[in-house]
Amino acid sequence: MWTCSEYVREGFEVKGNKYPERGHSARTVSRVTDPLPAVEGIRQRNLARLLRLVHLEGPLSRASLTESTGLNRSTVADLVAELARLGLVAEHAPDPSRRVGRPSPVVAVDHTVLALAVNPEVDALTIAAVGLDHTIARRERIDLDHLLTPAETAALVAARLRAWRSGPLAAARIVSVGLAVPGLVRAADGLVRNAPHLRWIDAPLRDLVSAATDLPTVVGNDAALGALAEHLYGAARGIDDVVYLNGGASGIGGGLIVHGMPVAGAGGYSGEFGQNRPGIAADTDRRAENGVLEDEVSRARLLAAVGLHTADEPTLAAALGASEDPAVEAELARQRRILSTALANAVNVLNPSVVVLGGFLATIAAHDPQGLLDAVAAQAMPSTMEGLDIRVASLAEDRLLIGAAEAAFADLLRDPTAL
Questions:
Q1: Residue 25: which residues within 8 A CB-CB, separation 6 or more?
Q2: Which residues lie in coiled coils (predicted)?
Q3: Which of 27, 139, 277, 386 could form a disulfide with 128 if both were Cys (CB 3.0 to 4.6 A apart)?
């Protein structure tokens, strides 16, 4: 789970706008200083550099890899051949329409290298196979009429893994599992300290899933992983100071990117915006006495307004958009007012460049984006609003799954030879 700042911390230089042949700006990463470990250590590090580049940026020519890393052409060719032998990248011929001078093969991650990404919620378990190229190869939402237990989650993930390996993903390599959990996850060991809506307390989810699947497993807070995904590939790509709020069936969580780095907190529990107590100006807007933000700004209340018991994000958004019931509009407006106060508080404290909203919060924002921005501006300090942009999560319902997969791929990206 490397960000731009992590590259810098590891001794790389990050620059933009170096791949004009791809038709858009992108980042390059080059070594500024190199310590002098053993030869094998240097080679492993260089393999990781190349794999991270094509993982983050997509297919790149060997010439681009040579330019961005500062390695010579023969070294890059040798490293690419090693990554191909490991089954992590593939080379193909360049686009003839863009070829100038001597052609340079294009290097891309092997799309058959996958991680399982899992998001347990109060009403469903979503499981996806996500490629090293961030694409969703398979996805399944298992609707539930009861609360999952950690053991049941592990069993369902293992069953889906067996079915996919013997069926549609028989030719793929599933190398790891990442879980995005709506609750407090201890960073040190992946222990789910408290997922209140699932009623999980001190659940050893990582160990349960790893034992059931026989795969390396990581567990993280769902909103923190959503923030990472949107920072690397989505609405906050290239933005160093970001506040991300995610709205799901279990409530509201958040993630922070400060100076390009994810902020986890001392134990890994930062970003719990949903547990803050919002200022509610009008008593008529209050629905939960002494409630926290997620009691007032609530997916369950939106579902009830349109007469649905359960729904995925696109279905709920479509139902809200199609409704002509004044009561639905009133509920959206009420939740938008309370959300704007919570966002203004976050903007005052953190002074981000961008606020990204995911899940049902994106639906609330998209219903009246300018109205939400104006309401935040009316309550925040003018200086903290300068240049602020509020965006909906561009990865939509994929954001938590891509974030979970990014966490699952972290060890492979750190050492491609360890697969």
A1: 16, 17, 18, 19
A2: none
A3: 139
| pLDDT tens-place string over residues 159-206 | 999 999 999 999 999 999 999 999 999 988 999 999 999 999 999 999
Q: List the one residue out of 266, 416, 241, 273 whose CA is nearest residue 358.
A: 273
**Which pTM does this prediction carry?**
0.87
Contact 400, 125 (CB under 8 A): no
Could you give the CA distance from residue 84 to residue 404 in angstroms, rounded to a whole number?
Answer: 25
- The rounded distance, in Å, linking the Cα atoms of 195 and 251 is 11
Phi, psi of 30 (to 5 degrees): -135, 150
What pLDDT band is residue 99 in, cutting at 50, 70 and 90?
Answer: low
Rounded Cα distance, 198 and 182, in Å: 8
What are φ and ψ of residue 107, in 5° steps?
A: -110, 130
The conformation of residue 147, written as its DSSP 8-state character, comes to: P
**Region for residue 20 given its phi and psi (left: phi exceeds 0; alpha: psi -120 to 50; beta: otherwise):** alpha
Give yes or no for residue 11 having a pLDDT over 90.
no
Residue linked to tokens 């906050």: 236
DSSP 148: P
Q: Which two tokens stand for residue 296?
A: 């007032």
Q: Tokens 């958040």 correspond to what residue? A: 254
Instruction: Give me the percent of the chain exceeding a pLDDT of 70.
Output: 89
Which domains, from first to last, does the chain contain? 4-108 (1.10.10.10), 113-225+399-418 (3.30.420.40), 235-394 (3.30.420.40)
Contact 186, 200 (CB under 8 A): no
Residue 354 β-bridge partners: 242, 389
| 24: β partners | none
Distance CA 3, CA 400 (A): 17
Type of residue at 22? R
Residue 307 contacts by C-beta under 8 Å, 6 or more apart in sequence?
none
Q: What share of the chain is helix, strand, coil (3-state, %, to 5)?
A: 45, 25, 35
Burial of residue 35, with CB atoms counted within 10 A of its CB: 0-12 exposed, 13-18 middle, 19 or more buried? exposed
- In the block, tokens 């008593």 appear at 283
The pLDDT of 51-55, averaged and rounded, is 97
- Separation of alpha carbons 315 and 157, rounded Å: 24
**In the predicted structure, residue 157 carries a pLDDT above the cut 50:** yes
Q: Rounded CA gap, 269 and 221, in Å?
A: 8
